[in-house]
Amino acid sequence: MKRLTLSSLLAVAILSGCSSTEEVVPDVPPSELYATAQQALQSGSWTTAIERLETLDSRYPFGAYSEQVQLDLIYAYYKNDDLALGEATIDRFNRLNPAHEKADWVLYMRGLTSMAQDRSFMHDLFNIDRHDRDPEPARKAFRDFKRLLERYPNSRYAADAQARMVFLKNRLADYELAAADFYLRREAWVAAVNRSQLIQREYPNTKAARQSLLIMESAYEKLGLSEPLENTRKLIALNPI
């Protein structure tokens, strides 16, 4: 079997995208259109579901299915990895329905959508773990889940949001650790210490916080600061990795 190269994988992706043609959604009653959208959602046919739902949304923006169509679109966009469209639909829904009974679910989906933006196709394809990539989507997701717990502590999504916050906290701490290590390798000793202290302050009880002590130890040793070095070594002994 021939080995697939990166260029061939990308070519397949491009060709498959170009070969698809936009389907014309038939002019049928909204109830029938919504029923076919639901069938597509249940079968995992996200593209078909999105086509039907977008058609409903554009043809009947104030119809009986309006709110549910937007909620379904939020979910379908997320599942289809149309994350920017999902985020825009969430913003629109919140603007039009600020006190909706499913507001906790919408906030949960915002967190999931932001969290999904914290990766890329290439990272997934080659199983690459890049702690040094831009963490802004992870920060957004963390804020969304935190807001969910604050506003809706009894929500059915609260437990999962809390678990995801633990993962995200470690992700953000790992990013700061990569930055501290970068400064250490560049012999920017003070910057390495400052970044390590930020990790310990903002993300305590993480593996990165314990690992940052080793960076501080090296930096203090290079700076010739005996007292901070001794204190750091004591902390390392009390917080083994």
UniProtKB/TrEMBL annotation:
Query: Keywords of this protein's UniProt record, alphabetized?
Result: Cell outer membrane, Lipoprotein, Membrane, Palmitate, Signal
Q: Which InterPro entries match?
A: BamD, TPR-like_helical_dom_sf
Signal peptide per UniProt: 1-21
Keyword Flavoprotein listed? The answer is no
GO terms, biological process: Gram-negative-bacterium-type cell outer membrane assembly; protein insertion into membrane
Q: Which topology term describes how it sits in the membrane?
A: Lipid-anchor
Judging by the UniProt lineage, the source's domain of life is Bacteria
Q: Name one GO cellular component term.
A: Bam protein complex
Where in or outside the cell is it found? Cell outer membrane
Q: How the protein assembles, per its UniProt entry?
A: Part of the Bam complex.
Give the protein's biological function: Part of the outer membrane protein assembly complex, which is involved in assembly and insertion of beta-barrel proteins into the outer membrane.
Q: Which HAMAP family match?
A: OM_assembly_BamD
Q: Which family does it belong to?
A: Belongs to the BamD family.
Protein name (record): Outer membrane protein assembly factor BamD
Q: Which organism is it from?
A: Photobacterium gaetbulicola Gung47
